[in-house]
Amino acid sequence: MAVSKPRPAHLHVSPLGTPSRDCSPDYLTMTRDRPATPDRASRSSFSSIRENESILPQCFSKTKISSYLDSEAIDDLLSPPSPTGSTSSTDSQELKMIQTQTHTHTQPHTQPPTKFLPPVTNPNSRLLGYWTPADSFRGWKEIQVKGKLASKSFGDLQILHQVFKDTPKPTKRGGANRPGDAPLERLPTEILTSIINLLALDVPPNGVSRRNVDLMSLLLTSRTLHIATLTTLYSKITIPHSRIFQKFLAHISEHSTLGTIVRRLDFCHFNPAQLFSTAAERSQARNLTSETLLRCLDLTPNLQEFLAQEYLDDDLNADVLRKLFLGLPRLQAVDFCGCTSTKFKEAFTSIVSPDWPPVLSIRRLSLHKCLTLPSVILETIIPRLNHLTHLDVAGTRITDAALAAIPVTARITHLNLAKCTLLTARGVIDFLANHPAVKELEFLSLATDARSHQLFDAESLNELLPVLPKTLKSLSLKGSKMEPSHVELLRPLTKHLEELAVGRSLTLADINRLFVPDENNNDDDVQMQLDWVPHALKYLDLSDFWGQELDLVYLFSSGCAILKNFSEPLEVIEVAEDVFKRVKKSAAAVERAGWKMSECGSRGWLVRQPPKDAATGKPIVRDDGRRSWKMGADSWGMRKIPVARAEVGGMYGSFMFGRKL
C-alpha cells in the first residue's frame, strides 16, 4: 500500500468551531487505493456536489471527498500527538488514539451553574430561549488561541468548557458604554442571533478555507455576543466523518445544556471511508455506532431536523428510528435519502405498528430512493403526518392507498412521486384533483424513466393538466407520453411555472409553441397574439428527447425561438446525455447563439450567457435563481426535495443535481 509523506497540519475551523489537524494522509491514500469492500458493494460511490458562486446558473464542483475533509482535523486536546511528534500515524496508532479519546471523554462531568433566558417575543417558551453561563463569566477573554494563526480572528473552542467557568466580575472601565451595555448588546438575543446567523456557512467556501472565521471573532468580543454566537454554532451541526461526531458527542456529554441548543444534525457530508477502509475498523473505533447515535439523540431533546443518507443506514437501528419518530416531540424534518440496506429495512419494519400515536410531529419527510422499504411502512406512517408540507418518496413502493391516506389537515407544498411504479395514473389524478392537502403545491415531480415505466399516457395527461394548481412553480412530466395537443394545456401553466420537464413524443416545433403564439393568420391565432401573456419559465427539461429526436438544425435555425432573446426569462435547457455529447461538438455554434454548456455527473445543460453592459463591457448580473421554494438551492432542475433550508452540498447535492432520474 502506498503511503503519502507526512505533511504539516493546517488549522481550520470545524463544524463545532474547533481548530484541528488534517486527517492522516495514510487514510486518504487507503481511501483512494483500496478495493471495494462487501459492506459498500450496494452503495453508490460517495460524491459531494456543491453549487459554485457564478453569474451563470448550473455551476457546480464535484469531489469524491467531502468539502469538510480539509477543514476538519484532530485538535491537540482531543488527539494527543504521537510519541514521535509526527502528524501521521499507522492504522493501529490511529485506532488506539481514538479509543483513548472515547474513554477519556465519556467520564462523568459535574455541570457548573447555568441559567435559561426566555426570548422576549415568547417569554413562556422553553424551546426558543438561550442558555447562558453565570453572570461572572469572562470566557470570551480566556479562550486560548494556539498555532501560527493566533489572533483574535480565530478562536480555539477546544476549551469551550470555559463558557461555563465562574470567574471574577470585570472591573468597571472608562468609556462611553459600560461592558455589556453597548447598543448592539442591548438588542434582544433572538435579534442578535438572527443577525449572526447570516455569518454562518453551511459549506466551506472551498476545500481548504476555514469555516465560520467571523463567528470565531464574535466569540472573543463580549459575553452577550458570545452567548448569541454559541447558539448559532451549535444550532446546526454538520458531521462529515465519525471523528467529528465523537468530538461533538463528547462536548454535549460534558455540557448537557449545549445539547439543548442543537436544532439540526446533518449527515449529508458523512463518508466513513474518509477515515477507515473497512466496516471492522469503523466498528473498532466506536466513534459513530447505533449506540452513540442514540446517545446523541438523547442529549439533543430539542432536535428539529435529522438529515441522514445511505452511508449512515446501517447505524439506523430500531432504537434510533424509534427515538426519531416517537421520542423527539419537536422533530419536524427527517431525511433518509438513499437508505436501502437490509439492516435499515428490517429495523424500520420491526418498529412500525398500528399502535403508534395517531399524530406524529414530522412535517417534512424524505424517503428519496429508499427502494427497499415495504409499502406497509408508508401506509402506516403517512396517515399520521397531520402537518405534512414536504414529502419525497421518489423511487419508493408507495401505493395509491398510502397517497390517499395523507391527512386532510396537511398542507403539502413539495411532492416528489418520481419513479413510484406502484402508483396508477387514476390514483394520482384523483388525489391531485380532489385532496384538500395539495391545493397549494409549489413543487411536483411525476417523472418516470420512459425506458422502463410509463405512468401517464396521452389520455391521462388530458385529465391531469387542467387540475394542477396555479401555485405550482416546478412540474416534471418526464417519461409521460405527450401529444402536440397537450401544448394548449401546457401554455396556461407556463405563465406561473418556472421549471417544466416535458415528456416524450413531442417535437422541438411543439416546444417552440410554448414561447410564441401561433401564426396561421386565422381569427383565433390573431386573437391569441393580441392576448398573449409571456411565459415565466426559467428551466426547460428536454432530456426525454433522445438521439435524433432533438433536431439541432431546427434548434439553431432562425425559425426557432427557444435559443433567441424572445424566449427570456428562459435560462437553462437540460438535454439528454447523448444529445449533450452531440452538442458539445458544436460548442462554437452554441456560444454564437449566446449560450454555454454546463455538466455535472450524468446531467448536461445549455445555459444562457448574460448580456454585457454596453458601457463597461462586463456581464450584467442576472437573476441568481434563489427562490424560497428551493429551500436553499440556487440552481434549476433539482430532483430531490430538501427538507431543511441549507446550501447544496455533500450527497444531497449529488442526488439533487448530479444523477439521472
What's the arrangement of secondary structure elements?
Elements: E1 12-13, E2 19-20, H1 25-33, E3 48-51, E4 60-63, H2 91-104, E5 115-117, E6 130-132, H3 139-142, H4 189-197, H5 213-219, H6 223-235, E7 236-238, H7 242-254, H8 256-261, E8 264-266, H9 279-285, H10 290-299, E9 305-309, H11 318-326, E10 333-337, H12 342-351, E11 364-366, H13 375-381, E12 390-392, H14 400-404, E13 414-416, H15 425-434, E14 443-445, H16 458-467, E15 474-476, H17 486-494, E16 499-501, H18 508-512, H19 523-531, E17 539-542, H20 552-555, E18 572-575, H21 577-584, H22 587-592, E19 595-600, E20 603-608, H23 650-658
Parallel strand pairs: 7-8, 8-9, 9-10, 10-11, 11-12, 12-13, 13-14, 14-15, 15-16, 16-17, 17-18
Antiparallel strand pairs: 1-2, 3-4, 5-6, 18-20, 19-20
Helix pairs in contact: 4-6, 5-6, 7-10, 10-11, 11-12, 15-16, 16-17
